[in-house]
Design brief:
Strand order of the largest sheet: 3-2-1-9-8-7-6-5-4
CATH topology: TIM Barrel
Strand content: 5-15%
Radius of gyration: 18 Å
Number of domains: 1
Shape: globular
Helix content: 40-55%
CATH architecture: Alpha-Beta Barrel
Order of helices and strands: EHEHEEHEHEHEHEHEHHHH
Number of strands: 9
Length: 287
């Protein structure tokens, strides 16, 4: 099994501004290729910022087939966000033919609250059907929370923690499971609990800054880490005036030039006069 550690990108999905709002596979590959050149550990396709719930299973598999065929020197951890057990199993079974490093599996997100027993009944068949390590996706803002005991009791790699509740990541780590941080409001502090790495939205357009943060944590550079964390927090706040995925696409396009397109409803496209430069200036240490 490949080591899961470092900076992963919650990479966006380019969408053409055509009648079908179709996925732009060529631009998708261009974006991921740039991220690989920048040195990230891997990408996590079709998560929250990748508009996973807005894409069909066939669309995801078509992109993943092209992505794996490129054989880039990065890890790929596809997000499985189908929302129901049959399609979740269909996707993890389809991924068996690809060399994914792991799969990130979202719990059901409609029936709230979900009991720990209900979540175990959802995740156990997934574990039976896949040979890939499984990372559970804890994002209570959008889905049901994944309690610590569920993560620790199941034979999973660990969790993507996008909840940020105090003590949650620490409890998972104490239970001998891994943690990838998925919220960037205080990345220095959150990584310093012992997390193996981060799955970052900001890394779509400033991967070098997230990589620098990971290195500061590893080296114990507290002053530099806290200063960078504040700058990243400011940059993240500046992306939230409009739909996050739309802003991330425009910012990524400004960095590397590949067309990132539009977004699917219910997201709303950016206004034509949106200027990415203030966010880039705030986010880049060399700006």
């Amino acid at each position: 099994m490949q080591e899961i550690e470092g900076v992963y990108v919650a990479n966006v999905t380019p969408i053409k501004d055509d009648a079908a709002l179709s996925v732009d596979v060529d631009s998708y590959l261009d974006h991921v290729s740039w991220l690989a050149e920048m040195g990230v550990r891997g990408v996590v396709p079709f998560g929250t910022n990748g508009e996973g719930p807005s894409l069909t299973l066939n669309e995801k598999l078509r992109v993943l087939e092209a992505l794996f065929a490129w054989d880039l020197p990065i890890q790929v951890i596809p997000a499985v966000m189908q929302g129901n057990l049959p399609e979740t199993l269909e996707m993890v079974e389809a991924l068996e033919e690809y060399p994914a490093t792991a799969v990130l599996v979202l719990p059901p997100y409609y029936f709230k609250p979900a009991s720990p027993e209900g979540l175990r009944r959802f995740f156990e068949p997934v574990l039976e059907r896949t040979g890939h390590p499984v990372i559970l996706y804890h994002i209570p803002k959008y889905a049901v929370p994944v309690p610590e005991e569920v993560v620790i009791d199941l034979p999973v790699w660990g969790v993507k923690d996008s909840g940020g509740e105090g003590g949650y990541a620490e409890a998972i780590l104490e239970g001998n499971r891994g943690v990838l941080i998925g919220t960037e409001d205080d990345l220095w502090q959150r990584l310093n609990v012992g997390a193996q790495g981060a799955i970052s939205a900001l890394a779509n357009f400033i991967p070098e800054e997230i990589l620098a943060m990971h290195e500061k944590v590893k080296s114990g550079d507290e002053a530099g880490g806290r200063a960078l964390s504040e700058r990243l927090k400011q940059a993240r706040a500046m992306t939230k005036e409009y739909a996050s995925a739309a802003v991330l696409k425009r910012l990524a396009e400004a960095r590397h030039g590949a067309p990132m397109g539009t977004v699917r409803p219910p997201f709303v496209p950016l206004p034509g006069d949106y200027d990415p430069e203030p966010v880039l200036s705030a986010a880049l240490s060399t700006a």
